[in-house]
């Protein structure tokens, strides 16, 4: 039987003892106190969702930093995708831009596609992107990756199956 994580006293002690340190650590990483405060709160929200005895933590700061580091990576990835989308949008005619709501939906979709592609092995992802984004044929992709054309076909089948599986979820 799993023990509930939400022992309010344990969480309060952890929060009181380490929240200030975590905010400062995040502020150094981000250069922004508001974003640091948000990610510090998100870190403690993640802890609430996990099934772990907080009183068993030997290194609470290391535990908090690990969770916060994952949130930072997600934050930076989101910023990079959003920035790339906005740069591409700026090169388009104004009518293409869409409403702020539509732009937010496009960014969310791009984040889901990025997450889906990140779960593919490197060569499979590269083959898929060279085919879909650059329009390269299998022979050219095989030459670039240093593999056989047959291997590229396997990579593409793996990528397509992965895409279908993710869409079905």
From TrEMBL:
Molecular function as annotated in GO: DNA binding; sigma factor activity
Location of the RNA polymerase sigma factor 70 region 4 type domain: 111-163
Keywords: Sigma factor, Transcription, Transcription regulation
GO biological process, one term: DNA-templated transcription initiation
Chain segments annotated as coiled-coil in the UniProt record: none
InterPro entries with a match to the protein in the record: RNA_pol_sigma-70-like, RNA_pol_sigma-70_dom, RNA_pol_sigma70_r2, RNA_pol_sigma70_r4_t2, RNA_pol_sigma_r2, RNA_pol_sigma_r3/r4-like, WH-like_DNA-bd_sf
Record-annotated RNA polymerase sigma-70 region domain positions: 14-80
A Pfam family: Sigma70_r2
Family according to the record: Belongs to the sigma-70 factor family. ECF subfamily.
NCBIfam families: PRK09651.1 (NF007232), PRK12528.1 (NF009180), sigma70-ECF (TIGR02937)
Protein name, UniProt field: RNA polymerase sigma factor FecI
């Amino acid at each position: 039987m799993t023990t509930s994580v939400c022992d309010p006293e344990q969480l309060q002690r952890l929060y009181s003892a380490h929240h200030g340190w975590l905010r400062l650590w995040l502020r150094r990483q981000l250069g922004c106190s508001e974003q640091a405060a948000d990610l510090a709160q998100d870190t403690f929200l993640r802890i609430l969702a996990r099934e772990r005895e907080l009183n068993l933590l030997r290194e609470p700061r290391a535990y908090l930093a690990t969770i916060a580091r994952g949130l930072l990576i997600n934050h930076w990835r989101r910023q990079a995708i959003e920035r790339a989308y906005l740069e591409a949008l700026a090169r388009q005619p104004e009518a293409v831009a869409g409403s702020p709501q539509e732009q937010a939906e496009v960014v969310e979709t791009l984040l889901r596609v990025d997450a889906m592609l990140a779960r593919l092995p490197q060569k499979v992802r590269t083959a898929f992107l060279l085919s879909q984004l650059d329009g390269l044929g299998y022979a050219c992709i095989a030459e670039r990756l240093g593999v056989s054309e047959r291997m590229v076909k396997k990579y593409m089948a793996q990528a397509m199956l992965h895409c279908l599986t993710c869409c079905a979820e």
